């Protein structure tokens, strides 16, 4: 019987949360996998051996017998292509991915598994943002648009891969769906103010290439979806927007400058560890134009990302879900997820007449 759960990147920041959570439920069946066996071993010891170590280099070919006893893989690393995902599907292994890169995600959507369940958009953004928009859709009769806002604390020690992804997406263009049509936009442009909370106040957030805005028009049929990003430090957000406006951000394409900027973000702590995911969903309810405002906030974004992934993993591992490639909002209900996260997040919701 196939019982193993492999968490690739399982001793990393997010991976530890996932591995530890699953290890408590399925002791001795969860493997924290990565290139550095010593780190995996050290983490295994800290879990009382409920999570086992496994050496796995994603840059090397994966032998077919690797999947022999594997029931599920949870991927915490950014992949360059879908080869590994297709190998999982070929060997009837369920697959869950927490990464946010839409270029690989869009190719994964084209896979047609016959027996495996593949779940994408698992984390904060995408993930919780998708579920907040679905929560709004569930409460309205008609949805016309969804604006998504992400606030990240610069005091949190984000993983290097996450920092690299953010830096790489500060420059460049991408497309969004607006009123049902595709529109080309520029990253860190078109600033828009949003009130995040009494504690954080109103901040200006800017367009950013999170994958949720590409996915939700497909999965929830919303004509216009836009995602914006800001930081808890308004000074830093404004500085990046200014550098973008005068064109200096283009210098980040130079490898040496990029590396220095990533190092700076990785080593510096300029703010708090808070995060907020907030959505503004507009539409109709009982013939009246309304806005659904929903938000989730907490501290340590890597923890909530890991908890969301563990929630999806334990349900897919224990339940009967159809084969195919799905985004989180296609398989799960927001209320169930938010109840599972109630000890680490604060949920606020309201509907306002326009």
TrEMBL record:
SUPFAM superfamilies found in the cross-reference section: NAD(P)-binding Rossmann-fold domains (SSF51735)
Saccharopine dehydrogenase NADP binding domain mapped to chain residues: 5-103
Gene3D superfamilies: Dihydrodipicolinate Reductase, domain 2, NAD(P)-binding Rossmann-like Domain
Domain of life: Bacteria
A Pfam family of this chain: Sacchrp_dh_NADP
Matches recorded under InterPro entries: NAD(P)-bd_dom_sf (IPR036291), Sacchrp_dh_NADP-bd (IPR005097)
PANTHER family: CARBOXYNORSPERMIDINE SYNTHASE (PTHR43796)
Stated name of the protein: Saccharopine dehydrogenase-like NADP-dependent oxidoreductase
Native source organism of the sequence: Rossellomorea pakistanensis
């Amino acid at each position: 019987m196939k019982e193993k759960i492999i968490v690739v990147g399982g001793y990393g920041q997010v991976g530890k949360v996932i591995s530890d959570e699953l290890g408590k439920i399925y002791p001795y069946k969860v493997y924290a996998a990565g290139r550095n066996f010593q780190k995996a071993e050290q983490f295994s010891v800290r879990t009382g051996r409920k999570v086992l170590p496994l050496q796995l280099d994603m840059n090397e070919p994966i032998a077919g017998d690797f999947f022999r006893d594997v029931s599920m893989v949870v991927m915490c690393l950014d992949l360059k292509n879908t080869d590994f995902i297709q190998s999982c599907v070929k060997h009837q292994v369920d697959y869950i991915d927490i990464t946010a890169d839409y270029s690989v995600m869009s190719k994964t959507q084209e896979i047609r598994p016959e027996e495996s369940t593949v779940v994408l958009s698992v984390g904060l953004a995408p993930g919780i943002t998708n579920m907040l928009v679905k929560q709004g859709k569930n409460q309205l009769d008609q949805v016309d648009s969804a604006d998504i806002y992400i606030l990240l604390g610069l005091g949190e020690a984000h993983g290097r891969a996450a920092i690299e992804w953010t830096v790489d997406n500060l420059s460049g263009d991408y497309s969004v769906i607006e009123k049902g049509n595709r529109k080309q936009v520029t990253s860190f442009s078109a600033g828009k103010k949003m009130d995040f909370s009494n504690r954080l106040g109103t901040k200006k957030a800017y367009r950013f290439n999170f994958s949720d805005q590409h996915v939700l028009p497909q999965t929830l049929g919303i004509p216009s979806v836009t995602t914006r990003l800001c930081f808890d430090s308004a000074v830093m957000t404004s500085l990046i927007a200014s550098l973008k406006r005068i064109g200096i951000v283009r210098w980040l394409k130079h490898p040496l400058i990029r590396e220095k900027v990533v190092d700076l973000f990785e080593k510096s702590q300029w703010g708090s560890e808070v995060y907020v995911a907030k959505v503004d969903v507009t539409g109709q309810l009982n013939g009246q134009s309304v806005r659904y405002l929903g938000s989730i906030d907490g501290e340590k974004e890597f923890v909530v990302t890991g908890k969301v992934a563990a929630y999806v993993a334990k349900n897919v591992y224990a339940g009967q879900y159809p084969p195919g490639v799905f985004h989180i909002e296609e398989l799960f209900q927001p209320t169930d997820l938010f109840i599972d996260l109630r000890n680490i997040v604060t949920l606020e919701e309201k509907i306002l007449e326009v």
